[in-house]
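Record type: monomer structure entry
Structure origin: computed from sequence
Chain ID: A
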Amino acid sequence: MNRPPAADRPRRPTAPDGFVVVDKPQGLTSHDVVARMRRLAGTRKVGHAGTLDPMATGVLVVGIGRATKLLTYVVGADKEYRATIRLGVTTTTEDAEGDVVAVVDAGHVTLQDVAAAARTLTGAVLQVPSAVSAIKVDGRRAYARVRDGEEVVLAARPVTVHEFEVGPARASAVDGHAVLDVDVRVVVSSGTYVRALARDLGAALGVGGHLTALRRTRVGGYLLSEARTLEDLGATPDDVPLTVTPLADAARATFPVRTLTEQEERALGYGQAIGCAAPAAARAHSVVDQVVAGIGPSGTLVALLADRDGRTRPVLVLAPA
């Protein structure tokens, strides 16, 4: 039986507050995904943590309802990617969607050479972001200025490349020149551009390079293994609220947790401070070490907490008294 047109369907019940980890498909912007999620969640109060380019796929953390207030913290999480870098070809956008600027024979480059160059790009580094990034220059996005024919050079900024694993690799040819496609896995801090890593890797080897594929496999504690496709989410019956990761579980994947007493829960609900506790056990991928999720006796996320002036104070109250 065919489903009626979207305009003729009843409005989907509003989804509960929480996170949905979406496996973003290639060809859609992160904004496109949010637009679809607004319809699926039955609310306009939807946001995401960390933009993915249209070419990229993988983990996009989407917040619904009050969970959008947690996205600010998730944006700052470290991220893991699988990518393919083509060495020997430089493009205008540092990825496969740009025009080819130069082709240089990379037949002499070995995997050992690539690994050695990758080590020089690992750790705390100063990275010049891609000129076609969304960074604003005098109020306008850099990519918009490039599109209008302006030459844009962005200032280097500190980032951390925690891991840069190289291999395997495949040789091929472009315009009669040997090129090398190298698969890599990187774990990076927020604000790191993987296509800039591809550019800098090619520059370090003297042959140029660009990104041909990018898949985000983790954002903080949110993994690709728990991500759902838009097709899977869209199969939810129209009269059934979308299934989400509840606020408390979303917080557990992001913050250290402090279990509260009923009295502490009540005080925090009124915005009051409570006594400090022993340091909470940190998450392996904790985003903001000084912020803790306060979980009530019933398992409800009460507030985000921080120790200040000898007391534990609410940073954000989510379950008022």
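Annotation 1: The helical segments are 30-41, 71-75, 111-120, 142-147, 194-205, 230-234, 247-252, 262-269.
Annotation 2: The CA atoms of residues 61 and 286 lie 15 Å apart.
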